[in-house]
Amino acid sequence: QKEVEQNSGPLSVPEGAIASLNCTYSDRGSQSFFWYRQYSGKSPELIMSIYSNGDKEDGRFTAQLNKASQYVSLLIRDSQPSDSATYLCAVNEGGAGSYQLTFGKGTKLSVIP
Amino acid sequence: DAEITQSPRHKITETGRQVTLACHQTWNHNNMFWYRQDLGHGLRLIHYSYGVQDTNKGEVSDGYSVSRSNTEDLPLTLESAASSQTSVYFCASSEGRFSPLHFGNGTRLTVT
Fold first, then answer.
1. Is the pLDDT of residue A95 over 80?
2. Which residues contact B65 (CB under 8 A, 6 or more apart)?
């Protein structure tokens, strides 16, 4: 059973702080990793994708990937109340020929003004 | 702009009825997916298709079926709706194996 694990939270951080969200996955052969943000009652929206070990930065967001540890994280710098949402980690775990994504259950982030 | 459109946005139906949820994408993507989202379970894959006439079962396919007669559409049918199928349903598409999913706005289905 392929699994993607996230802490469900809620994770509360003060405005302006760094929020750190973590995700582990079970399939060592996974090659593509994504972070989605989902506001209550809305559909998931892509915020970051990462394919290689190391860090990838996009504005206030940094994704970190460590394939040896089967670990991917998302850092949100200068957190804003508008960042309050559920963050979903998604991994392509199906191996060759698979286009499916397996999602974690999500971490709920609350940014306190 | 390309998009994925789901309809209806909200649906209430009775146990035992057949229900079809529509999904239409203008991305021209070969890959299309149906997920359901429930509290405590996250997004779970129901069915998926990698092209016209191709359909495959996902993790929670019992009681659901799909058909793919063209690139743009992947309707999801609940053969005989059950209360356990009350959920929010998302359709998604992707371009390739390493590509992210693009999601529709979802359909909230209530089975009474």
1. no
2. B47, B76, B77, B79
